[in-house]
Predict the 3D structure of the following.
Amino acid sequence: MSNAGRKEILTEQVAKQICRMIERMPDAAIPVTWENVIAHAKKKVGHGFNRQMLSQKEWNGRKLIAEAFSEAKEVQKRMQKDSAPKYKTAPRGVLQKRIATLEAKNLALQEELEKERARKIDALDAFLNTRCDLRKLLQESYETEP
């Protein structure tokens, strides 16, 4: 091996540092994009690598940084899918369920109100159609009501 040329900047050790950084990006809620990888690598390593260099450089036949990027991207997609509602209209569905519940309660209360009205009208009708002493009927109605 000759020592001619510039010293290698993107070594395997630096690549492993960048890989660890990329793996932590989804957990830190940093979007996994090549722009973010380049920016964070520049902060961490101090050299601004370009996308092609990061994605194409191989060590022992493996593109370490590209593999780490793909895995982090998959993790990010899974996390977004898990945090998203099961259906796009989930909030609407919850509201529709609540509306249906309230409508059912409303109908039940209206039926109860109609029954109570009918009972009161029957009692008033019976009260008006009897030829008894009204004080006696009032006394009886107060005694029978709860």
